[in-house]
């Protein structure tokens, strides 16, 4: 676990350095691609550190002591041979990326996310550059030939199993925020039915972490990449011994495991509608703003902090509008599944919780929960918006 965490840190450093270098040079780092692309030609252009990363990612033994030039030549031989084994850790998504480039003769003008391109490049499989004057991604000829020799039917069931493991893992950490390694293994096995060899799952998970960049390994397990106060979430979860983890269904977790998933609760949608009623703003921008609010709430932000965040993006001119925002924030907070609460929303843990349909109708009357103490804010308590007034004289009015 420690070694893998160090790999993640090192990769983040290299990506930051690359982005800074691109900024300093106006992004002029695109080499010319000659297709068919020579693997040797690409590798000799890399630094010793980048070659070492490829060697480490592909678990190639016996070449670590070689000098840069010799290491590059050794990798030319090893990378095509390592491809069949690497595919056993893939899901259908990564296979299809390579297939689409392979069927185009080894070059594609469809660009992918920087992180995902970095994943393939750091395994010696794909390289970005300019081809015919346009940004492109190319597969070295040696890798292309190795890929074309593979039989998809030999991997179909493996891809399906790996995809399910990955989605369950992403879904669990989307809702719980953090899980110990033992908790994660037990839950994935419970939902997937079997994990087979534990080391096989870990191999699949490590590759998925580096490709999807949605979760992060830590000293005790794994956490959602959006979780910013890991220690506090761990302490809060451990202090709530009377609460078990929320029992999600398989379908809920598989849905939450999809890239870019957002749990758009009725309160989330109502907040988006409120913003659009009061501002000239697109649905996409309003939805993105509310989604950011949800991330802050899951990290334990007070309603006053969430309101301050919103004020950074839009002007709130009067008290009535402020009250409307605070009411929406309260409803969103109470209806959001929270990492502190092991996947429950405050509404679900409230003794007086009501059906979702009623909550939608009575959103303006929603109780405010103090996100620090997790207690209901009374009318005579200080208003969580930070005004210094009593709640009944401010946002509850």
Automatic annotation (TrEMBL):
Pfam families: SEC-C. This is SEC-C motif-containing protein.
């Amino acid at each position: 676990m420690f070694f893998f965490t160090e790999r993640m840190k090192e990769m983040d450093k290299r990506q930051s350095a690359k982005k800074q270098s691109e900024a300093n040079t106006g992004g002029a780092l695109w080499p010319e691609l000659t297709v068919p692309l020579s693997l040797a030609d690409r590798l000799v252009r890399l630094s010793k550190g980048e070659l070492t990363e490829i060697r480490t990612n592909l678990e190639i033994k016996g070449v670590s002591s070689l000098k840069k030039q010799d290491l590059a030549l050794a990798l030319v031989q090893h990378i095509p041979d390592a491809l069949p084994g690497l595919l056993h850790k893939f899901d259908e998504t990564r296979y299809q990326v390579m297939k689409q480039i392979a069927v185009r003769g080894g070059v594609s003008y469809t660009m992918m996310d920087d992180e995902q391109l970095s994943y393939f490049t750091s395994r010696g499989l794909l390289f970005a550059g300019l081809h015919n004057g346009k940004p492109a991604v190319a597969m070295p000829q040696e890798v292309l030939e190795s890929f074309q020799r593979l039989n998809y039917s030999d991997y179909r069931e493996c891809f399906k199993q790996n995809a399910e493991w990955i989605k369950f893992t992403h879904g669990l950490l989307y809702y719980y925020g953090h899980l110990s390694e033992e908790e994660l293994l037990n839950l994935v096995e419970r939902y997937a039915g079997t994990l087979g060899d534990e080391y096989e799952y870990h191999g699949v998970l490590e590759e998925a972490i580096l490709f999807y960049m949605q979760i992060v390994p830590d000293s005790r397990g794994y956490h959602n990449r959006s979780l910013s106060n890991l220690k506090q979430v761990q302490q809060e979860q451990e202090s709530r011994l009377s609460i078990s983890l929320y029992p999600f269904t398989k379908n809920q977790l598989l849905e939450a495991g999809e890239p870019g998933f957002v749990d758009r609760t009725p309160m989330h949608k109502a907040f988006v509608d409120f913003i659009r009623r009061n501002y000239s703003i697109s649905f996409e921008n309003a939805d993105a703003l509310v989604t950011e609010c949800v991330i802050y709430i899951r990290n334990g932000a007070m309603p006053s902090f969430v309101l301050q965040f919103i004020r950074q993006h839009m002007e709130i001119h009067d008290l009535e509008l402020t009250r409307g925002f605070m009411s929406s924030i309260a409803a969103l907070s109470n209806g959001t599944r929270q990492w502190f609460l092991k996947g429950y929303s405050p509404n679900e843990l409230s003794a007086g919780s009501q059906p979702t349909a009623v909550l939608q109708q009575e959103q303006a009357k929603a109780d405010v929960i103090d996100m620090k103490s997790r207690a209901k804010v009374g009318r005579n308590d200080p208003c969580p918006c930070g005004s210094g007034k009593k709640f009944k004289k401010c946002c509850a009015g």
